[in-house]
Design goal:
Chain lengths: 113, 111
Amino acid sequence: NAGVTQTPKFRVLKTGQSMTLLCAQDMNHEYMYWYRQDPGMGLRLIHYSVGEGTTAKGEVPDGYNVSRLKKQNFLLGLESAAPSQTSVYFCASSYLSQVDGYTFGSGTRLTVV
Amino acid sequence: GENVEQHPSTLSVQEGDSAVIKCTYSDSASNYFPWYKQELGKGPQLIIDIRSNVGEKKDQRIAVTLNKTAKHFSLHITETQPEDSAVYFCAASIYNNDMRFGAGTRLTVKP
């Protein structure tokens, strides 16, 4: 049972480049989330999805887009990367039935130069 | 929205001692309070959680207490071991999509 898998694990982008981060979960979870983690700021929610075909903005959505075409996959896109988007990105998932703990992936370390 | 504050930001203890991390939250409607442990290079992992209808919960060497009146909750680790060294995050939420995390506590257990 793989849980939540994120790809890639590391990436370096030049300012203005675009990229997509992929998150896949095999637990049949309805909810999926994208967080960014910056030193001293904990985890901040970028976007989330409550099911296939749905997405919603979180706390810090600017500069990012997401898509959930399949229940098991949640994609995070950066259309035009900026140095301020240098961060560690975590995907997580959870059940719908009640508020419950999240299962996190191992993260993607992104550096924008 | 919910605001979660976590203290201390760093904590160093001797192996075998106890460690306590404290969090406060702002929204009295919050009803779910998880704690996550993040080891170097890995994602956060849920270690224990508590719901608002319970005042204390234990799981072996870890325990969490909740004071709804004061809007604070704490993580207690007893008989600390070097493998407890990690960053610990508290969080609070009402619904699945509004979980807010504290800034984290870096715990170091010295052998």
